[in-house]
Write a structure and sequence with these properties.
It is a single chain. The protein has helices at about 5-20, 45-55, 75-85, 100-110, 110-115, 120-130, 155-160, 175-180, 205-215; strands at about 25, 35, 60-65, 90-95, 135-140, 145, 180-185, 190, 200, 220, 230-235, 240, 255, 265. The chain is an alpha/beta fold and about 270 residues long. The protein has a single domain (about 25-265), classed as 4-Layer Sandwich (Purple Acid Phosphatase, chain A, domain 2). It has a 6-stranded mixed sheet. Helix 1 packs across helix 3, helix 2 (about 45-55) packs parallel to helix 3 and helix 5 crosses helix 6. It is globular and about 50 Å long. It binds manganese (II) ion. The site of manganese (II) ion has 7 residues, from loops. Manganese (II) ion binds near residues 66, 98 and 223.
């Protein structure tokens, strides 16, 4: 299933064209959705997702980012994500994770795999996709989802929509925090996070305020490795999902959101 440089360039160009004019936050339905967490270059995970995509033909598939880096088959994984997104664009949304950034991809593997097997020119075509991927999905009175979580200083969807996401990295603090922040089940608003100086942890006060301000009941995110694949926070109202095995550490999962905000944990 390996494809050549010319085909990959065409594939990336089509994804870029399909995504560059989308808003930062995309409105979605509130039922019949699959949420897919970090894939990190694991082909088995995306093949498992593809089977579900072919079986659940009335479901929307929302990918929460972190497609490459770290794993053994980064190029093949990203290409299959792109192909699925283009095959039925009306029911697939690709979001941007913290690894969809030039400076992160240069350190964690994707840059090396693409430049070793192909060229810097092809790597730059992938980066053209990274810089246009949207940040979040929202369904009023129901759900919100993004890769990392709740950022500081956001009280409306418009606060996110007006940011400029079209940079290879994340100079904007709000978009950066949406891609990087982590939940913590404790009674505070925001606190320092050991991931880095610009990264925050968000506690139950920030969580409650965000739910009220943005008029949602549940939040979905990815970004953190939990051995069980899915972990819940804040009394079962925030779901963290991881969809790669991470060298056998995780039993990879995806989340199915049915009707009435019913949640099902689905192993890959
Ligand atoms: Mn991440």
């Amino acid at each position: 299933m390996d494809i050549g440089s010319t085909e990959i360039e065409q594939l990336a160009g089509m994804v870029r064209d399909a995504y560059q004019n989308k808003p930062n936050v995309i409105e979605t339905p509130s039922k019949n959705i699959f949420f897919i967490g970090d894939l990190h270059g694991e082909l088995d995970s995306i093949l498992g997702v593809q089977k579900l995509f072919q079986k659940y033909t009335n479901h929307t598939f929302i990918f929460l980012g972190d497609y490459a880096d770290r794993g053994p088959a980064q190029i093949a994984t990203v290409n299959l994500v792109f192909a699925i997104a283009l095959s039925e664009p009306q029911r697939v949304i690709l979001l941007r994770g913290n690894h969809e950034s030039d400076e992160v991809a240069r350190h964690y593997g994707f840059y090396h795999e693409v430049t070793r097997k192909f060229s810097f020119d092809l790597y730059s075509k992938y980066m053209e996709v990274y810089r246009v991927l949207p940040m979040a999905v929202h369904s009023p009175s129901a759900i919100f989802a993004c890769h990392g979580g709740i950022p500081e200083r956001v009280t409306t969807i418009e606060d996110i929509q007006r940011r400029n996401r079209n940079d290879l990295n994340f100079p904007d603090d709000i978009l950066f925090q949406m891609a990087w922040n982590d939940p913590k089940d404790a009674d505070f608003r925001f606190a320092a996070n050991s991931r880095g100086m610009r990264v925050r942890s968000f506690g139950s006060i920030a969580f409650e305020e965000f739910l009220t301000n943005l008029n949602v009941k549940l939040i979905f995110r990815a970004h953190e490795v939990f051995p069980e694949g899915i972990r819940t926070f804040f009394n079962g109202r925030l779901f963290s999902v991881f969809s790669a095995s991470y060298h056998g550490v995780v039993s990879p999962k995806v989340i199915r959101l049915g009707g009435e905000l019913n949640i099902e944990s689905v192993p890959l």
